[in-house]
Amino acid sequence: xxxxxxxxxxxxxxxxxxxxxxxxSDLEASRHDVNAVYAAFDNHKMGDYQPYLYRxxxxxxxxxxxxxxxxxxxxxxxxxxxxxxxxxxxxxTEFGLFFSIxxxxxxxxxxxxxxxxxxxxxxxxxxxxxxGDRQLPAAASTCxxx
Length: 146
Prior knowledge:
Elements (H helix, E strand, L loop, with lengths): L22 E7 L7 E6 L9 E5 L7 E2 L10 E6 L7 E5 L2 E5 L13 E3 L17 E5 L2 E5 L1
Antiparallel strand pairs: 1-2, 2-3, 3-4, 5-6, 6-7, 7-8, 9-10
């Protein structure tokens, strides 16, 4: 972690209960809180499909799981904070796009993850991609958020 534009770095040894050597699938710096960062991890290559999703409110010194009630076998590929609403988080998982409207309470103790489906056979939500949009991959579909 660098706090001076890359002049010096601080190593983060461990994030919560994430197993050693797990792939970091996404990091998202908060747009609303300079101290907050979100991290998603993917350990499916080791046969571990748990949703590892974490938030730090102190620039990576401590981490809190915000996986809440995401599906227990749903690898998290990406996380995004809404650019306008600080309490709205998106998580792209193996099983679709989920969102939480309490993502920053109690330093990230997100509980109410909700699936967003667009009808039979469709996972996720989205519009056509535009320049500047953030792409959220979710299983075989693509999700977009601005």
